[in-house]
Design brief:
By secondary structure, the protein is mainly α. The protein has 3 helices and no strands.
């Protein structure tokens, strides 16, 4: 939501030179880009299994 509704604040937050939490946010986003697709695939696969 921050990126959409306050893009300048989001950009400032991601600036390694200006933000004390930028590296942590960067780590979180990098982790999410790897984990979320795998989690989503697992849940969709589970939902598509035949029940019986």
């Amino acid at each position: 939501m921050l990126a959409r509704y306050a893009p300048s604040k989001w950009t400032e937050t991601l600036s390694l030179a200006d933000s004390s939490i930028a590296s942590r946010i960067e780590f979180l986003l990098d982790s999410a880009i790897e984990a979320v697709p795998e989690l989503l695939w697992g849940e969709l696969s589970r939902l598509m299994e035949p029940h019986g």
